[in-house]
Amino acid sequence: MLNVVVLVSGGGTNLQALIDSIDNGNVTNAVIKAVISNKKDAYALERAKKHGIDGICISPKDYKSREEFADAMLLALSDYDAELIVLAGYLVIVPEKVIKEYAGRIINIHPSLIPSHCGDGYYGLHVHESVLNRGNKVTGATVHFVDEGTDTGPIILQKAVEVMEDDTPQTLQKRVMEQAEWHILPKAVDLIANNKVYIENNLVKIIK
Ligand code: GRF
Predict the structure, then answer these.
(1) How far is the CA of 14 from the centre of ligand 1 (A)?
(2) Most buried of 64, 127, 139, 205 (most Cβ within 10 A)?
(3) In this predicted structure, what is the pLDDT of residue 107?
(4) What is the tens place of the pLDDT at every residue in 76-117?
């Protein structure tokens, strides 16, 4: 069993997709040990509670320095024996110390086809606004490993989604979640939990 810890900041629909996929057997050999939020009132923590999963808040605001925040995070991750960290709508920059300690064991979901519409400032609705402003006909979502950069780590899975002419950032965000994010995030966890993913020359290979 792969011990998964999910980091969240908001509603947690991606967390829910993962919980459901574990419950219905689409994801095997993985267990969510805890959900960590930087916001006390994140609805994702409610979702965790409803499923009997520990939900805790570790906010950078509660620590004097980034160093202390990083240490608190590392302590919690080790308490839960984390083997895979899933960033599911986590809006805090993960401290370098944590990235180094868990190299190759942190994944993130981003709501565009990387390398388009990603990097600093591209989060939430900004991503979909950018897609609409550029007039893209296709967008999607990407699951990737996390390295020290913003959205720069090796890509694990991507799924394309059609952009409609009458889309707003909100309608596009919803379609990208429903058609892409909620599928590829659990799929990536399943592949990792079943040892089907490895990195070679900074590129992800998936064992069929
Ligand atoms: C998703 O769009 C995800 O791609 C992005 O943040 C959003 C989180 O949504 N990183 P939720 O909290 O999972 O509902």
Answers:
(1) 6
(2) 139
(3) 98
(4) 999 999 999 999 999 999 999 999 999 999 999 999 999 999
Which residue reads 């550029």 in tokens? 134
Q: Is the CB of 181 under 6 A from ligand 1?
A: yes
Which tokens go with 20? 């459901």
* Domain residue limits, the chain: 2-206
How big is the chain by its Cα radius of gyration, in Å?
Answer: 16
Q: Is 95 in the pocket of ligand 1 (CB under 6 A)?
A: no
| pLDDT category of residue 139 using cuts at 50, 70 and 90 | very high
Partners of 141 in beta bridges: 159
- pTM surpassing 0.90? yes
Burial group, residue 42, by CB count within 10 angstroms (0-12, 13-18, 19+): buried
Cβ atoms of 85 and 106 closer than 8 Å: yes
| CATH architecture of the domain formed by 2-206 | 3-Layer(aba) Sandwich (3.40)
